Amino acid sequence: MQVAELFRPVLGDEAPVAIRAYDGSASTPSAADPVATVDVRSETALAYLAASPNSLGLARAYVSGHLDVEGSLYQALTAMSELTVSDVTPSTLLRMAARMAPLRFRHRVAPPPEEHRQRGRRHSKDRDSTAIEHHYDVSNRFYELVLGPSMAYTCAVYPSETATLEDAQFTKHALVAEKLDLQPGMRLLDVGCGWGQMAMHAAEHHGVQALGVTLSRDQATWAQKEVARRGLGDLVEIRHSDYRDVSEGDFDAVSSIGLTEHIGRRNISSYFRFLYAKLRPGGRLLNHCITRPDHHHRAAADPFIDRYVFPDGELLPIGWLISRMNAAGFEIRHEENLREHYSRTLAGWSANLEEHWDACVEEAGEGRARVWRLYMPACQVGFDVNNIQLHQVLGIKLGPDARSGFPLRPAY
């Protein structure tokens, strides 16, 4: 069978994507004009697919450069969003596996070096540290190029259709600060603080004493230098630490922006109990995280995301998370879904990557840059079609008199 015909069931028989292969074969969609062309460049691409006939096999072929996409990768992934490998019927997968079996044994290839496999007990401190190191300790310059001046690697909040990525990231930090009701002299704990932007925002704009903790040594080093550059050393401390090792308590507020996805289902209850214990009575928690829309969507990350992007990541339904947060003692005061905002955020990061492609490759290597070129539009499609969501949940640790201190109608 010609290679293009072999690939067609993987991408979807009706998907408006053309296929061109190294053996000279080609396949064009019958239902519509193609939005992109998948170029199968070598037999190695088939070998990867034969070994893993799912998104992991395709990702290996793409990351290694043995498969490429001409045209918009976002449009191509959107076209295939309802006909992904995970939706290929078992009978089709069996036929493909049988046809590719000889190739699998004739042409053995190792995964690209960018692939990472975790070792040790899941969500132990050592294993979590290794997972964070894999994704974040790449190159601070690489992240500067992709994320832009805001250096915020979490969903932005777009105040308008025309807002820039930088405007939206500032709006996100301002929204978190407003929900936490940050006031001069308060103490904020920012867990999973990244490059420290929330902690610095709280100090600069609200006069707050902030402690940020991150498992990434590179993030901590960059943030510490930025704190010094901005003259915020009296207000902000950035610590290279596991959040579980924070010994201080009696904080007025806790922000958790993009950390819950790394905690794991088994540890969520203890996570919220830990944060509850860190707050004074009347203190607030703002939890900002990616979720799955319901119990029917899988919690485990896509194999490509797990091996190349966020090892050990788990996405949980928002209702389940809220119930665990509530069970830890928090009164839930506000919740909102920002999934459309994350789609825009990812589009902004993808645009930055393309604009600075050569510099990104020089910093992190072509394989790593290709991981990002694939995973960001793939996640953007996920938010577009509601396979994944982004929620902010605000809770409070009530005092003995059960007073919340909230206004009757908060502005947000």
UniProtKB/TrEMBL annotation:
UniProt EC number: 2.1.1.-
Residues covered by region (Disordered): 108-131
Domain Polyketide synthase-like methyltransferase: 142-403
Signal peptide span: none
Pfam families (alphabetical): CMAS
Descriptive protein name: Class I SAM-dependent methyltransferase
GO biological process, one term: methylation
Family listed: Belongs to the CFA/CMAS family.
Lineage of producing organism: Bacteria, Bacillati, Actinomycetota, Actinomycetes, Pseudonocardiales
SUPFAM superfamilies for the chain: S-adenosyl-L-methionine-dependent methyltransferases (SSF53335)
GO molecular function, one term: methyltransferase activity
Family annotation (InterPro entries): CFA/CMAS (IPR050723), CMAS (IPR003333), MeTfrase_dom (IPR020803), SAM-dependent_MTases_sf (IPR029063)
Keywords: Lipid metabolism, Methyltransferase, S-adenosyl-L-methionine, Transferase
